[in-house]
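Customer ticket, subject: "Can you confirm the structure for TauD/TfdA family dioxygenase?"

Message body: Hello, I'm evaluating your service for our small team and ran a test protein. I'd like someone to confirm that this is what the system normally returns, since I don't have a reference to compare against.
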Amino acid sequence: MTSPSAPPQLDLRTQPGKPPLLFAQPTPDLPNPTSWAQHHRDTLRGLVAEHGGVLVRGLGLRDPGQVAAVFTELSGGLMADRESFATRRPFPGGVYSSTKWPANQPMCMHHELSYALEFPGLMLFACLQAAPTGGATGISDAQKILTALPTELVARFEREGWLLVRNYNDDIGSPLSEAFGTDDRPTIETYCRANGIDYQWQPDGGLRTRQRRHAIIAHPITGQDCWFNQIAFLNEWTLDPEVREFLVDVYGPESLPFNTYYGNGEPLTPDTVAMINQTYETHTIREPWRNGDLMIVDNIRAAHSREAYAGQREVLVGMASPLRMDGWPLEETR
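Agent reply: Thanks for trying us out. I re-ran your input and got the following:
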């Protein structure tokens, strides 16, 4: 059906189980994606505020330069990626490739950089090549997740926050030079101290970090509480069992590339992690990508995911509208 929330000249369709779908129709006055985005920026941002995300179809986005121009028009400026947990390829204009992640494994629901003190309020995605099978970017309403999760679990995370432990090395995940923009130790240490990250250099030259963060935050515009974290996605029990077993054998249970805990450091059980992921799945909406599509997502209001896929897939990402969280820094920061 057509939604009344869009101006009558725009074709917005809503359907259960799918994100709002807006069909772009270039006109002689707005002949290219950049001019169209510039003209409809306020409308698009309004739809994101109303629905948490919107998928735009028909723009025909074709290359990173065009994508960067459209993202910049819609956001006013893009952020640099910091503290990434896996490798991304950067493009000019502040655009990145999707996170490098095995195609045959899904990326579970998460809020981008929700473990960082500075994180994007807005996520932008552009599909240059849709996968023949799978690969959709799903979104899930963070307010619905908060309501659906067990009250006792929510209360504990609200009280304690959550803890992310990371082990940086040259073998797996994002290397120091990408995660921090440098491999200079004093610069990395300064960043950690400024961002509430406890750090410890390892004998092999690697780095172990610990950062405690809020699991629930208030939306800066609506004031409504939202489930906002990566507790389940970055937990060992979300990994493919064979991958987890391999990593534990190679690095040991204390040196996995990343793992999450309750705020007091207590491990999560496999059942708890599975329950969080199942709650996300119950409340996920998705639409298969088509070449040239654009998606805009409120990073606090909605988590996002990526289905497993087969074949070639290219989706570019932009992060914008930076926000800063009142952190929960660990008491002992070196």
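A couple of notes from the result: The chain has eight helices and 20 strands. The longest strand covers residues 118-129. Feel free to reply with more questions.
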